[in-house]
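Work Package 4 report. The design task specified in the project plan requires that, given a folded chain encoded as structure tokens, an amino acid be chosen for each position. We show below one input record used in the internal validation round.
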């Protein structure tokens, strides 16, 4: 249920995740992308740039853990930041003087989460007062490093796992970054954002798939530097593309619907340094708890995506095989025979499990038990093996009685409700099926 915003059907950004599309035989209305629009927020069409947004010590620690140990992700709720806010001085001091090592119980994952929590406190709470917005549940935080020739293609941010699983585009309320690399000079690696929002994204599509331009027209349209844009008091006649050069300890916050990218890096000084950003996606109470379970770039997220991709590829291969079988008579015949054999084997396994359970039930009973009660007990069992219908179980038991299997091999007698043996016709209905009122008893 979406309380903050509304779901719009059939929003075409030119992309359907393979993990979602392979649920369908072909593309149809059910497989098309949808998007959540018009989320409540205190500031619409927001774009702001801030300098020195976190302490230099925190920025350096976040750079170190992101540049040397790979990408990472976590999720920080506003409630846990509020708790830390009450202890902010001791919380800062303890964290900034503690790093994970063999002599500390702090795991790398926990350490990064605590760093992210402090970054949210210093930037989003203390600097721009986002904690006053009631619609916000928390922030997905991640660290990414890049080097020469790396870039980030044109895109909008959204809850990635929701897109993979449901093809629903769920943007954050706000998105942003903190730039933490202590570099002297960088050429390229600029952050560029388009303030036309979803209108621009729908026209260009996911990574420029619809316009066939991975930069979304960035190099074909007029561009304004953020300083000029801000100086003009965000004039509506300004170019829609705003460029923000990379700068140490700089924070950027923008509307979650805004498409953005980063330009290719051509050089970094000192040599060997990385361009590291701390990404921020700020989500509402509707979607935040779901994102929290597997935030983007986290270990849980990566594992889940790999599993979905594996299952998707497996299904795709099965579909290809089905197509080959459909057009080859010999293969089709072989497949039918194999399928019949598989059904026979599964049926035999089912009958064996039911028989074993029936014997176990009667061994535990001192008195005769009606077939109807036995069937009811098997059907109501929590064991997943007993997903059979009552009629199926009755057919099995009827066969075993007819062929004396129960009596000869297991000393189980079948009697009518009047204690007559199976030779009496009163045990069977007009179709020759044993009556559920008949009783089974184990003879010791």
């Amino acid at each position: 249920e979406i309380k903050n915003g509304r779901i719009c059907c059939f929003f075409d950004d030119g992309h359907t995740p393979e993990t979602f599309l392979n649920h369908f035989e072909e593309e149809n209305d059910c497989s098309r992308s949808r998007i959540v629009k018009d989320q409540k927020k205190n500031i619409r069409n927001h774009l702001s740039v801030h300098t020195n947004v976190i302490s230099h010590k925190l920025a350096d620690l976040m750079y170190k853990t992101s540049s040397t140990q790979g990408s990472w992700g976590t999720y920080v709720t506003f409630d846990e930041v509020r708790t830390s806010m009450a202890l902010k001085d001791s919380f800062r001091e303890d964290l900034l003087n503690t790093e994970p090592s063999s002599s500390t119980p702090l795991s790398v994952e926990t350490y990064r989460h605590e760093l992210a929590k402090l970054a949210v406190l210093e930037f989003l709470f203390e600097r721009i007062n986002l904690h006053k917005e009631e619609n916000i549940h928390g922030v997905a935080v991640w660290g990414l490093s890049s080097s020469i020739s790396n870039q980030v293609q044109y895109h909008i941010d959204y809850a990635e796992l929701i897109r993979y699983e449901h093809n629903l585009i769920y943007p954050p309320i706000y998105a942003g970054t903190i730039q933490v690399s202590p570099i002297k000079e960088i050429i390229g690696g600029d952050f560029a954002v388009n303030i036309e929002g979803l209108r621009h994204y729908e026209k260009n599509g996911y990574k420029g798939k619809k316009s066939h331009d991975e930069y979304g027209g960035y190099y074909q349209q007029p561009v304004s530097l953020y300083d000029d844009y801000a100086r003009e008091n965000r004039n509506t006649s300004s170019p829609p593309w705003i460029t923000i050069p990379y700068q140490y300890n700089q924070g950027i916050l923008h509307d979650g619907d805004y498409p953005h990218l980063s330009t290719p890096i051509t050089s970094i000084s000192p040599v060997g340094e990385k361009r590291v950003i701390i990404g921020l996606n700020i989500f509402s109470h509707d979607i935040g708890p779901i994102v929290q379970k597997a935030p983007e770039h986290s270990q849980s997220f990566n594992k889940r995506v790999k599993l979905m991709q594996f299952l998707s590829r497996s299904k795709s291969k099965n579909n290809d095989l089905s197509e080959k079988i459909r057009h080859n008579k010999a293969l089709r015949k072989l497949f039918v025979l194999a399928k019949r054999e598989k059904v026979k084997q599964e049926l035999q396994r089912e009958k064996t499990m039911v028989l074993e359970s029936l014997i176990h039930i009667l061994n535990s009973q001192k008195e005769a038990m009606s077939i109807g009660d036995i069937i009811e007990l098997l059907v109501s069992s929590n064991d997943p093996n007993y997903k059979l219908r009552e009629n199926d179980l009755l057919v099995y038991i009827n066969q075993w009685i007819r062929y004396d299997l129960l009596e000869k091999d297991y000393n189980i007698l079948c009697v009518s409700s009047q204690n007559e043996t199976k030779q009496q016709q009163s045990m069977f209905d007009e179709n020759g099926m044993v009556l559920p009122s008949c009783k089974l008893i184990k003879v010791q």
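The chain has a mean pLDDT of 85. Validation will be extended to a larger panel in the next phase.
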